[in-house]
UniProtKB/TrEMBL annotation:
TerD domain boundaries: 11-166
Protein name (Swiss-Prot/TrEMBL): TerD family protein
PANTHER family in UniProt: CAMP-BINDING PROTEIN 1-RELATED
Top-level taxon of origin: Bacteria
Amino acid sequence: MFVTLRDDNGVGLDYVNMALGWDPVRKNRWFGGGKDIDLNAAALLFADDNIVDVVYHEQLTSRDGSLRHLGDSTTGEGDGDNEIITVDLTRLTPEVTTVFFIVTCYTGQTFEQIENAFCRVVDGVSGAEIARYDLTGGGSYTGLVMGKLTRSDNVWQFDAIGEGIRAQHPAEAVAQLKTFVR
């Protein structure tokens, strides 16, 4: 599903956000509980089929300053979005043709084991949702390729992908993303 990123007046969007939310593990005060779940939002920037930059919990800003990770949640505490990556499409360098949004589980739980998890892409100005995935009860994978932004004739489009991958860290996802570049 391709969505051309335009507002209600047909003007191309300049700002989008990728957001991720989940609930912490419920711990039984008498018997302990499972280990904490640490999901991570990441954006990987490609020039054609070559990775050129990444934004995630260990690198909060892209080299050109167009993408920013607003902070790492290691537990999912709090309501709503726990991690957000902002994208200023007007500042992306011309070499960048694709921006992938992925979610990985740093602590290794599969999406079958995670409660109340979601990821979404929203218009960075109006807050309107462009795409949303419920991650709870997902498959036996530790990562998800949410979707990708692609540039064609200076117009950005969002392509929802929703494919599970085996990755606990963005570096483990790079080779798996190459099948989605084109």
